[in-house]
């Protein structure tokens, strides 16, 4: 994050803090610090915004259920396979 170096000495550790912020794993003081940094650092805000989009997409795709026939097909294959002998 070269453009950001002068603004907030941004590096992987800073991004880790932003991930913790997104996960809700920070204290109130730390949250305020990250919010202030994101307000003043366009590059980190861009990374934050991208991570938000990714998380929404993952969450959305995790709520979709597999078709019932797929589950039945998998169970049928499991039950028809020969047990492994130890």
Blueprint (SSEs and pairs):
Layout: H1 5-8, H2 12-23, H3 28-40, H4 42-62, H5 68-80
Helix pairs in contact: 2-4, 3-4
Series of H and E elements: HHHHH
Helix content bin: over 70%
Query: What's the helix count?
Result: 5
Find the structural class using helix and strand composition: mainly alpha
User: What general form does the structure show?
Assistant: elongated
Mean of residue pLDDT?
A: 84
Residue share in β-strands:
under 5%
**End-to-end Cα distance:** 53 Å
Number of strands: 0
Query: What value does the Rg take, in angstroms?
Result: 22 Å
**Main sheet, how many strands, which sense, barrel?**
none
Low-confidence stretches: none
List the main descriptive attributes of the protein structure presented here.
86 residues; mainly alpha
Can you describe what's shown?
The protein is mainly alpha-helical and 86 residues long. It is built from five helices and no strands. It has helices spanning 5-8, 12-23, 28-40, 42-62, 68-80. α3 packs across α4 (42-62). The longest helix has 21 residues, at 42-62. It is elongated. The model has no long low-confidence stretch (mean pLDDT 84).
Describe the structure concisely.
With 86 residues, this protein is mainly α. Helix content is 73%, strand content 0%. The longest helix is centred in the middle third of the chain and has 21 residues, at 42-62.
């Amino acid at each position: 994050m070269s453009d950001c170096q002068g603004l907030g000495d941004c590096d992987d550790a800073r991004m880790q803090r932003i991930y913790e912020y997104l996960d809700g794993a920070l204290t109130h003081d730390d949250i305020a610090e990250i919010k202030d940094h994101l307000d003043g650092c366009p590059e980190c805000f861009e990374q934050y915004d991208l991570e938000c989009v990714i998380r929404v997409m993952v969450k959305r795709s995790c709520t979709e259920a597999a078709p019932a026939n797929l589950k039945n097909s998998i169970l049928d294959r499991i039950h028809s396979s020969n047990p492994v002998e130890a």
